């Protein structure tokens, strides 16, 4: 196996208030994006794509405040999702898996006229961007 690029993401860990709900919502989305189940333990799950993995964990050390993307910290994760047709299909299916479309009146150009993306939020307030654009 080749060495991952220096500066590449090794993993992302999200602390969540409900592991079962998070595993269902994040698990569906990450699987649709090509991630494979990687690890599982009583308070967490992870999915891997290449050398990067994403963890959702219900940690006993988590404070009681809910996640708010508008506070300092993580605002959203953006994923390459394929072409516009794939973004549209994922957006439609996401509504049945705990995700809601944000900025519906500007969709799919909420990021500006040069973008084609869906901005989704889940039950716990985490936001993802599914983009058909290039970096």
Low-pLDDT sequence parts: none
Shape: globular
The percentage helix is 10-25%
How much β-strand is present in the residues?
25-35%
Q: Radius of gyration, Cα only, in angstroms? A: 15 Å
Number of helices, where a helix is a run of at least 4 consecutive DSSP H or I residues: 2
| Biggest sheet features | 4 strands, mixed
What structural class do helix, strand and pairing data support?
alpha/beta
Mean pLDDT: 94
End-to-end gap = 26 Å
| Helix/strand order, N-terminal first | EHEEEEHEEE
Strand tally = 8
The side-by-side strand order for the widest beta sheet comes to 1-4-3-2
Provide an overview of this structure.
The chain is of the alpha/beta class. The protein has 2 helices and 8 strands. The strands form 2 sheets. It has a 4-stranded mixed sheet with strand order 1-4-3-2, with helices on one face. A hairpin with a 4-residue loop joins strand 7 and strand 8 (127-131).
Describe how the helices and strands are arranged.
Blueprint: E1 11-15, H1 19-32, E2 36-41, E3 44-49, E4 52-57, E5 77-80, H2 84-94, E6 99-101, E7 117-122, E8 127-131
Parallel strand pairs: 1-4, 5-8
Antiparallel strand pairs: 2-3, 3-4, 6-7, 7-8
Briefly, what is this?
With 135 residues, this protein is of the alpha/beta class. The protein has helices spanning 19-32, 84-94; strands at 11-15, 36-41, 44-49, 52-57, 77-80, 99-101, 117-122, 127-131.
């Amino acid at each position: 196996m080749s060495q991952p690029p220096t500066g590449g993401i090794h993993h992302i860990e999200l602390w969540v208030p409900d592991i079962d709900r998070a595993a269902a919502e994040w698990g569906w989305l990450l699987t649709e994006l090509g991630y494979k189940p990687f690890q599982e333990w009583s308070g967490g799950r992870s999915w891997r794509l290449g050398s990067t993995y994403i963890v959702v964990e219900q940690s006993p050390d988590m404070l009681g405040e809910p996640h708010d993307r508008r506070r300092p910290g993580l605002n959203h994760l953006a994923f390459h999702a394929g072409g516009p047709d794939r973004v549209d299909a994922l957006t439609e299916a996401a509504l049945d898996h705990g995700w809601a479309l944000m900025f519906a009146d500007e969709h799919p150009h909420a990021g500006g006229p040069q973008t084609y993306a869906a901005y989704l939020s889940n039950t716990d307030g985490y936001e993802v961007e599914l983009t058909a654009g290039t970096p």
